[in-house]
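User: structure tokens for this one?
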Amino acid sequence: MARERKTTSKIKIYAPELLHSEAEVIKWYMPVIDALLRLDGEASKKDAINKVIELNKVTSEELSRTIKSGESALIRRIEFARNDLRVEGFIDGTVRGIWKLTELGKRIIITEDLAGKIRAKSIRISGILRKNKKLIEPLPIPQIDLSAYYLFRNSKQSYNQVIDEQAVKAERDADEGLLNDLAESAVLVASKPLQYNTLPKRRSDPIELHGRMTYPRSKTTAINALSWANYCCEIDSAHSTFLRRNSTCQYTEPHHLVLMAYQSQFEVSLDVEENIVSLCCSCHKQIHYGADSERLLQQLFLEREERLISVGIIITMKQLLSMYALCDNLDQ
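Assistant:
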């Protein structure tokens, strides 16, 4: 009796959720958009991926990790991210081999809540495709409106100087409160793996502090930022400091590079690891009160600019210096 031969379907199903975790796809949404913005809005698939790799300083080791097909796992994640953005209408998929931002894509800031919705929508569509792969009729693709979660960037945005001394005092009190909370903490260990989110967060609602409204600081976020810097000063890791009480960690202080006093002028949160630098006491005081603070800020900004962009904090060097009263023109 002839043995029945088993056949396997050659139909390839686009099912990103089966190959990679949601987080590993979501993390590439904003890097893909930012890479295309740097390429004047469109580029070949190869050029777009290379730009993402360049801007995010992807190592050869990361690129060498492959999936069963032999393809780079990281590049596949970038491709999946691009597909999700196409489905949502942020990327034009009409020309094969070309990645092109739509007008909507050029303005969108993808926050954590929007990213989760986009990924869930993509997974749902993939499920429908798998179940209906033999149908000839058009697939019943769900119409899911995510526009309520949209947050837009404004390339011409400017930031007004904070001239209300009481408001500035409230922000400094909040910063001091964060330092005190950290000083009293027995454990200073990062709560998640040592990597940046690359996704914007919506700002929190303001709270009242000493009769003034201010924006809350997350102790966990600050600890993550300090831990990711290995409790070293990011101006110069050789700067001497001391050990924290009841801890093996060096004492450094978290500093919001884009000042929290300006949070009301940003739709995205400034209290994110990408905007928090680890500084020794001396450098922290010098940035606020010392001479030559402009040089320190320029160094930190150049090192952090890509990370700030990835979380929707769009700002120029001049605008940053203006926030520290080191430059008059906020619009450039």
